[in-house]
Amino acid sequence: MNPVSNPDTIFSTPIEKMGDFTFDERVAEVFPDMIQRSVPGYSNIISGIGMLAERFVEQNTNAYDLGCSLGAATLSMRRHIKQKDCNIIAVDNSSAMVERCKLHINAYRSATPVEVIEADIRDIDIHNASMVVLNFTLQFLAPKDRYTLLEKIYAGLRPGGILVVSEKFVFEDTVSNELLIDLHHDFKRANGYSELEISQKRSAIENVMRPDSKQVHKKRFTDIGFRSFDVWFQCFNFGSMYAIK
Predict the structure, then answer these.
(1) Residue 42 annotated as lining a ligand binding site
(2) Is 135 one of the annotated binding-site residues?
(3) Is 67 marked as a binding-site residue?
(4) Which residue numbers delimit the Methyltransferase domain (predicted)?
C-alpha cells in the first residue's frame, strides 16, 4: 500500500537561484508522487524487494533498509518475511523522511518489528544481517565512501545473505547512454512533467547524485568478495542489482 502523497510541483515554476536537491520537508510531502513519476519501474523494484526478502531473510536475523526515505522497501520486506524473530532496521538522515516513515510503519501491524533511525548510513553498525537494501541510496554518497560502505555491509552479512542495490545507471557507450536518458525524459513527460520541471530537476540533482555504470558496480562486488551478483531488474537507465555473500 502506497503512502498518500501531494502532487509534485516543486520545479513547476521558474527558480531564480537553483540550489542542490535535498530531501527536505517539501520533498518528503510529495515524495511518493515524485518517485512514481520519475523512476521507471519503481513499483516493480519495491515488489521485487519483497519477493527477495521472502527468499533470503532468515529466522533470528536482521534486515536493513539503508536510505529508507518513507519506508516503501521496508514495508515490502515486512509484508513478505515469513520467518520468526526477525528485525528490520530502517535508516535515513532526513528528519522529514524519518518522521513520515515512522507514521507509515506504525499504520500497519506486523509480527516483524521495525526500528526507524535518523542517522548517516555510513555510521550504522551492520550485524547478523540476512538482507541489506540500498534502494536508490548509494548514488547519493560521495564516490569515495561507496566501497567502504559496501565492505561494511559485506562484513555484516551472514553467509548466503543478500545485498540489493537499486540505482540509476550510466552507460559507457555514448549512444546508449544518450538514448536511455532521452527515454527517461520521455517517461517523465508521459507522467505530466513539463520541460521546465525536467530541466530544473536535472540541474538541482546533478551535483548530489553521481551514478555509476553497471561495470563499476560489478567490479566493486567482485573486489569485496561477493560470490554471485547481477542485474535482476532494469527499465531504461534505472535498475536494481543483487549481490550474494
Answers:
(1) yes
(2) yes
(3) yes
(4) 65-161
Say whether pTM exceeds 0.90. Answer: yes
Neighbours of 129 (CB within 10 A): 24
pLDDT band at 173 (very low <50, low <70, confident <90, very high): very high
Is 237 known as a binding-site position? no
Report whether 92 belongs to an annotated binding site.
yes
Q: Confirm or deny that 93 is annotated as ligand binding.
A: yes
Structural domains for the chain? 43-170+211-244 (3.40.50.150)
235 marked among binding-site residues: no
191 is an annotated ligand-binding site residue: no
Dump pLDDT digits (tens) for 180-225.
999 999 999 999 888 888 877 777 777 788 999 999 999 999 999 9
The DSSP secondary structure of the chain, one letter per residue, reads -PPP-----TTSS--SS-------HHHHHHHHHHHHHHSTTHHHHHHHHHHHHHHHPPTT-EEEEET-TTSHHHHHHHHH--SSS-EEEEEES-HHHHHHHHHHHHTS--SS-EEEEES-GGGPPP-SEEEEEEES-GGGS-HHHHHHHHHHHHHHEEEEEEEEEEEEPB-SSHHHHHHHHHHHHHHHHHTT--HHHHHHHHHHHTTT----BHHHHHHHHHHHT-SEEEEEEEETTEEEEEEE-
pLDDT tens profile 42-57: 999 999 999 999 999 9
Is residue 132 a contact partner of residue 66, using CB atoms and an 8 Å limit?
yes
Task: Indicate the SS3 state at residue 114.
Answer: strand
